[in-house]
Amino acid sequence: MTGRWAPSPTGHFHLGNLRTALLAWLFTRSASESLIWRFEDLDNAVRPEFYRSQIRDFQRIGLDWDGEPVRQSNRVGIYRDAIGQLAQQGLTYRCWCTRREIREATSAPHAHLPEGAYPGTCRGLTRQQISQHEASGREPALRLRTQGEVVKIQDRQLGNFEGAVDDFVLCRGDGVPSYNLGVVVDDADLGVTEVVRGDDLLPSTPRQVHLFGLLGLNPPSYAHVPLVIAPSGERLAKRHGAVTMEDRLSLGESELDVLNILLSSLRIEKVVSFGQLSERVKVFDSTSLPLAPWIFTD
Ligand code: GLU
User: Does the pLDDT of residue 109 top 60, yes or no?
Assistant: First the structure.
């Protein structure tokens, strides 16, 4: 059994990220699984200092992982192979839509489809339309051709979840493989059997499970955990106060205090030393975790 922690190095962690990291670690270690660290660094906003600070802050709350951190940016070849496999099965098509066009076309709600679902504008283009798009010089994205499949998942925390799969992007116009494609190829290639992540990603999970099937791969089990939100109801962000490890240290708190803030938010007994975390692992019970978001008040 293998778990993973897969952050995008596009910023310093805040308490919400660290809380999800702690949960990924607790689920994994309590099942005596190994934990892989995977940097999802195909994004343009990646910066070198964030790789370092994310690893440091993870360690500062007493967590560890196994092996060398993996970087998606070093693995682009395997994503291209998977895209090639799908293209060979006739399961891809090119799409020239802009974000704005998609937004406008999807303003009418579609039953079951996830937010921002693609309405299929480019899936049946005529030869003439394709030539016109090609002449525009704009590089197309590559999308998956779906048939309105509805995928059911059994989430360890949230129970049954059902969602329709849209023609989501496999490869962006600039040649960068998409998040959904990278996650699926990597989780399979790295032998991940258990995914623990924020519940903001739940709507994408049917897409990912569908893609596992098309590539002939087995999906992992999923546990989606609630996010941390500000009193306004927004997802926690920098502007909501002392939310990073550095912010908390500058308030005079210790790294252990930060760990204890996170443990308390999960209704897990505080620790007096990092060593005591191993005792919490032994009695960790995912069924007693809060299911509602944690409202952070500074
Ligand atoms: N890289 C994603 C994030 O930082 C997480 C992806 C995943 O866990 O599937 O939100």
Answer: no
7 lines ligand 1 (CB under 6 A): yes
Question: Which residue's alpha carbon is nearest to atom 3 within ligand 1?
Answer: 7
Q: Could you tell me the distance, in angstroms and rounded to a whole number, from the CA of residue 272 to the centre of ligand 1? A: 31
Separation in Å, CA 182 to CA 30, 131, 235, 297 = 27, 30, 24, 35
Residues in the chain: 298
**How high is the mean pLDDT of the chain?**
95
Distance in Å, CA 236 to ligand 1 centroid: 16
Domains plus CATH for the chain? 2-74+226-295 (3.40.50.620), 77-179 (3.90.800.10)
Predicted local confidence at residue 80, as pLDDT: 98
Q: Is the dihedral of CA 238, 242, 245, 249 positive or negative?
A: positive
CA distance 59 to 81: 34
| Phi, psi (deg, nearest 5) at residue 55 | -65, -45
Q: What is the pLDDT of residues 200-220, one digit of tens each?
A: 999 999 999 999 999 999 999
Write the pLDDT tens digit of every residue in 221-272: 999 999 999 999 999 998 999 999 999 999 999 999 999 999 999 999 999 9
Closest by CA to 261, choosing from 219, 294, 216, is 294
Per-residue pLDDT tens over the stretch 166-185: 999 999 999 999 999 999 99
Token pair recorded at residue 170: 């496999």
Q: How far is CA 70 from CA 35, 47, 51, 88, in A?
A: 12, 16, 11, 28
Ligand 1 pocket, mutate which of 179, 192, 221 (most atoms under 8 A from CB): 179
Which pLDDT value is given to residue 44?
82
Helix (H) and strand (E) counts for the chain?
10, 12
